[in-house]
Amino acid sequence: MTNAHDRCAAPGASRRDAIGRLLLPAAALLLPAGWAGPASATAARRLTPAQTEGPFYPLDLPDDTDADLLRQGATVYRRGQPCTVAGVVTDPTGAPLAGARVEIWQCDADGHYRHPGDGDRADPAFQSFGRVAVDAAGRYRFRTIRPVAYGSRTPHIHVKVRHGARTLLTTQLYVEGDPGNQRDFLWRGLRDPLDRAALTVHFRPVADGLQADFDIVVAA
User: With 60 as the cut, is the pLDDT of residue 28 above it?
Assistant: First the structure.
């Protein structure tokens, strides 16, 4: 049974509903296209997937461990395709990870690592390992060669991110479109297409060789 209060309230509620229906389309016109609410602005970025360190992390670091693997003092490495690998290191919110250090290591243009486990056959002119601290914006940059195949492995560069005494990430960077990827057990082990995309990088031609952009997201 409807009481007097309900009978009196109903007409007013109906009028408010009708006004609301008229105002909603107008309000929607004022919102940016694709706006999905405040949660979308703070959505966490996908973490860069981790991969194995492999057997050839340097036991003895070269005398020169800077970001230019093609030059050690007056010695210049002239084999392979020179390239720049650069990017930014951020946390999942997109904030630059101040104080982070990025390391890379890889084989020379003939597929040899500077490591006793690989027979110490690497060309000493190739620095083979480099490390650099990110800048205030989280940016890093290395000068090296486009990676080449090693044994049954597809071309890749090993990457490690450290922060203080902690290792935040160890992974590998692959070359987009290289035919060896489909045969490589670690690349194929990236079952999620988004994980493959995160580690498979386009090496595009630029004036001084090739350029590869590799942004890294780590949990601080």
Answer: no
